[in-house]
Design goal:
alpha/beta; TIM Barrel; 7-stranded mixed sheet; two-stranded parallel sheet; 8 helices; globular
C-alpha cells in the first residue's frame, strides 16, 4: 500500500514545485531571467502597470529631484490611452519595458494569445513613443518555458525582481518601506536588488498609488548612498 501512496505524494510534490516555478520571481527552472545585479552599491526601482494618471507623473517628479533612474513596465492598453504620460517617462530618461497589452497571466494563455499580447504592447509603444523596447516583464511573474522563448525570439529580455514591496495591497507608505527594507537588509548587501513597485493597477486605469509615491520618497532618502539605476545599467 505504501508504494502507490508514496508515488501519489511524490507526484503531488512535483506538481506543486512546477506550479511554484511558474510564479516565483527567483525561480530559474523554466529559463534564465534577470532577478538582481552583482553590485551591492546599486538598487533598481521598477514600476509595473502604468502609465497611470496622476501617480506616474508624481513619481517622475520625485525621481527627478533625486536624480534617480528607474524602469517602468507599461501595459499597452494604458499606453494607447495616455501616450503623453508614457512619453514623459521616456523624456525623463527612464527605461520602458513591455508588460503585455492587457496584463493576463501568461502561464495560462495559448501560444497565439501570448504572442498577440507582446506584439500589441510593442505596437502601442512604437505608435505612442516611436520606440521599441528590449525588456519584458510577465504580469504576476507568470511564465512557462514558451513564454520566455517567445519573448527572447521577439528580441526581449525577461526581467523579474528580488524584492517584492506588496504595494498593491498596502494601507500605508510605511508598510511598503518596511517590506523593502527587510528584504534588502536580509540579503546583507551581497547583490543589487531589483524592487517590484507599481505606479498603476491592472484592474483599471486610475488606480490610487499615492502610498507608492510616498514610499519612493522615503526609499530614495533612506538609500541615498546607493546608485538608483535603470535595469540596463545594473552591473551583472
Amino acid at each position: 500500500m505504501l508504494g502507490p501512496i508514496t508515488t501519489l505524494v511524490g507526484a503531488a510534490a512535483a506538481a506543486s514545485y512546477l506550479g511554484y516555478a511558474t510564479m516565483a520571481p527567483g525561480s530559474q527552472l523554466y529559463g534564465r531571467t534577470l532577478t538582481h545585479g552583482s553590485d551591492p552599491g546599486q538598487i533598481a526601482l521598477t514600476y509595473d502597470d502604468g502609465p497611470n494618471d496622476p501617480h506616474t507623473m508624481h513619481l517622475l517628479d520625485v525621481l527627478a529631484r533625486h536624480e534617480a533612474k528607474a524602469t517602468f513596465f507599461l501595459i499597452g492598453q494604458y499606453v494607447k490611452k495616455r501616450p503623453d504620460i508614457a512619453r514623459a517617462i521616456h523624456a525623463a530618461g527612464h527605461v520602458i519595458g513591455n508588460h503585455t497589452y492587457t496584463h493576463p497571466n501568461l502561464a495560462l494563455v495559448s501560444a497565439s494569445k501570448l504572442k498577440q499580447e507582446l506584439t500589441d504592447c510593442r505596437k502601442a509603444l512604437e505608435d505612442g513613443l516611436g520606440i521599441s523596447t528590449s525588456l519584458f516583464r510577465p504580469p504576476f511573474g507568470g511564465r512557462r518555458p514558451n513564454v520566455l522563448r517567445t519573448a527572447r525570439a521577439m528580441g526581449m529580455e525577461p526581467i523579474m525582481w528580488s524584492v517584492t514591496a506588496f504595494d498593491w495591497s498596502a494601507r500605508s507608505s510605511e508598510f511598503i518601506v518596511d517590506k523593502v527594507t527587510k528584504e534588502v537588509e536580509r540579503r546583507s548587501g551581497k547583490q543589487s536588488e531589483i524592487v517590484l513597485l507599481h505606479d498603476g493597477g491592472h484592474l483599471g486605469f486610475g488606480a490610487d498609488r499615492g502610498f507608492t509615491v510616498e514610499a519612493t520618497k522615503t526609499l530614495l532618502n533612506k538609500y541615498s548612498g546607493m546608485k538608483f539605476a535603470a535595469i540596463p545599467d545594473l552591473t551583472h
